[in-house]
Amino acid sequence: MSDDEDDPISRSPGHSLRRAALSMMAELAGRLSEIDCRISDSTVLLLVNDRTDVTASMISRMLDIQRTNMVPLVNRLESAGLVRKMPLDGKSFAIVLTPEGKKRRKQALEIIGRFEDDLMGKIPPEHRDHFKPALDSLWRSDAPS
Amino acid sequence: MSDDEDDPISRSPGHSLRRAALSMMAELAGRLSEIDCRISDSTVLLLVNDRTDVTASMISRMLDIQRTNMVPLVNRLESAGLVRKMPLDGKSFAIVLTPEGKKRRKQALEIIGRFEDDLMGKIPPEHRDHFKPALDSLWRSDAPS
DNA sequence: TATTGTTATACTCTATAACTATA
DNA sequence: TATAGTTATAGAGTATAACAATA
Least C-beta-crowded within 10 Å: which of A21, A107, B86, B144? Predict the structure, then answer.
């Protein structure tokens, strides 16, 4: 079946963005599965790092995840022994990494580092430096315009 | 909470790709909902167009959708009166657009056209021409390298 | 009053296994 | 044997409403 540049789908930047993201996420999810991590898990581990003052609500705002959907995510990390909840005051808890959590974070960082090298390596050199700035202009409120 | 260029998430092109795609898809889905179309619906309508020889299996391969997940998609379009199944041989059916399907396709094309103009307009001019080529190199087998 | 954390719930998208019928 | 279409099912991700407790 023809899929040349004449049809509106092949010419669509939105379609390219969707397909590229889905392809990338499938590949990354596969690599992270070897350390029993989902993409969202790894994002939380990277985000928290050594901090002891990051709440689930703060994470949900930073990653644009609904507060309510943080519950199973944090529970999963807690059940896996990767994070602990430390009371900050009467109503808030800090999500802090356990030693195993820090170990897992380091593994995730290595996997993601290799993954992103591979990712950028697929992009022709003349387009490479434009990739992240272009993407960030589509969602980051503080992106340069 | 700090979200500067020092943390591995803000510097990650993979994270930028994911967030940009999710942001874009949410916006497009919202606009297409005004003509009762999902993104996948519109993609099928655009793809089939005037052809009378496109099967669900062909669509599933072109869009990287599992064959099995085409069933509810096509049923939805058929129930909405947008497509008909025409027997091609004893085991295959062509998905063809009804007159209402062609009308809906035209509406979708207009919405998507405006949407993509807006999308590209958000990208700083110096990055704009690199956007689609960079993305296509990540998933299109025939992308120039 | 606004925020944090939570439960319950539902919808969408995606993925696998297995089956029938036809090429 | 391979392909087309289908059913059943399960796992993710995501969304809203509602509530209790605390700032």
Answer: B144
CA angle A130, A132, A136 (to 5 degrees): 115
Q: Do B19 and A47 touch (CB under 8 A)?
A: no
Find the distance separating the first CA and the last CA of chain B, reported in whole Å. Answer: 39
Beta-carbon separation of B131 and A22 below 8 A: no
Cβ atoms of A23 and B63 closer than 8 Å: no
Look up the pTM and report it: 0.95
pLDDT bin (cut points 50, 70, 90) of residue B48 is very high
Please check whether residue B134 is in contact with residue A123, taking contact to mean a CB–CB distance below 8 angstroms. yes
**A87 burial type by CB count under 10 A (0-12 exposed, 13-18 middle, 19+ buried):** exposed
Q: What average pLDDT score do residues A25-47 get?
A: 98
Distance (Å) from CA B72 to C1' C12?
Answer: 12
For residues A128 and B14, is the Cβ–Cβ distance under 8 A?
A: no
**Chain centroid to CA A64:** 11
Kindly tell me if the per-residue pLDDT of A75 is higher than 80.
Answer: yes
Partner residue opposite B20 with nearest CB, options A17, A116, A130: A17
Q: Do B20 and A122 touch (CB under 8 A)?
A: no
- Which among A54, A122, A138, A142 is the top mutation candidate for probing chain B, defined by the most B β-carbons within 10 Å of its own β-carbon? A138
At residue A141 the predicted structure's pLDDT band, cuts being 50, 70 and 90, is confident
How many angstroms from the chain centroid is the CA of residue B136? 14
Take residue A4 and report the two structure tokens written for it. Answer: 């040349």
C-alpha B43/C-alpha B140 separation (Å) is 17
